[in-house]
Amino acid sequence: xxxxxxxxxxxxxxxxxxxxxxxxxxxxxxxxxxxxxxxxxxxxxxxxxxxxxxxxxxxxxxxxxxxxxxxxxxxxxxxxxxxxxxxxxxxxxxxxxxxxxxxxxxxxxxxxxxxxxxxxxxxxxxxxxxxxxxxxxxxxxxxxxxxxxxxxxxxxxxxxxxxxxxxxxxxxxxxx
Length: 176
Hints:
- By secondary structure, this protein is mainly α.
- Helices cover 49% and strands 0% of the residues.
- The N and C termini lie far apart (83 Å).
- The relative contact order is 0.09.
């Protein structure tokens, strides 16, 4: 028991002592810890100026990197929209793709980071965004005929409509 107490005391002493690596600023070795960056939030959860700033940065990435490299030709099989920022589902897909790109181009992602991004993120996102029946299917299918149209969303579920009707009935007081 006495030996265990001595070992615990030594461990406490070593934990409190400054690390020889502290001078080199090495996190995990007693160096100053770096503050964690803020957690990214989905763009559709942002509002006001915060959303506008994020959409501007996303638009720069889409226009300057994504489209020139991965845009491919606009066809009926791969539609596009010059006003893609008005399609919330496309904005959400591209934002998620951009966040994944940032993560996988970080040096900590290693040499295979971009391969993982292509395999796990890019291929699936582009297939969903530019599918013939996808969110841009009512938009531009030929570069010679620019078009933009937001497709209507499905109506609320029957359950939601029933709940709303019930709440409205409950709110109306009977006449006596």
